[in-house]
Amino acid sequence: MSTYRRHSVSKCVCHRVSFQELKDEAVRRNLSSCNDLIQAGLCGGSCTMCHPYVQKMLHTGETEFIPGDFHYSSDS
Fold first, then answer.
1. Based on C-alpha coordinates, what's the Rg of the chain?
2. 45 lies in some domain
3. Is the pTM for the entire model greater than 0.90?
4. How many CA atoms lie within 13 A of 45 on its CB side?
5. Residue 26 is part of a domain; what is its CATH number?
6. Is residue 33 part of a domain?
7. Is the pLDDT score of 76 beyond 70?
8. Phi and psi torsions of 9, nearest 5°
């Protein structure tokens, strides 16, 4: 588990904000998409590398990911 945490993706690097903080703000502001969070200036307007992780976070509620593990099924 410590190796996973050490190499996990847990934040938007450009905006220096954790996915947990983004999740909390999404709930507080009733934001439901990655684009909503971008428009609010909270993440993802620069390099866009966090977009798939933010989308998965909004869909699953997870806030920490193994690098590259951002795919999910919308049917689940």
1. 12
2. yes
3. no
4. 11
5. 1.10.10
6. yes
7. no
8. -100, 115
Q: Does residue 50 form part of some domain? A: yes
Residues of 13-43 as b/e, b for ≥16 C-beta within 10 angstroms?
eebebebebbbeebeeeebeebeebbeeebb
Q: Between 51-60 and 19-29, two packed helices, what is the crossing angle to 10 degrees?
A: 60
Q: Which domain covers residue 45, as residue numbers?
A: 2-60
Supply the pLDDT for residue 2. 45
Q: How far apart are CA 58 and CA 33, in angstroms?
A: 7
Strand segments (E) across the chain:
11-12, 17-18
Give residue for tokens 């999740």. 23
Number of structural domains, the chain? 1
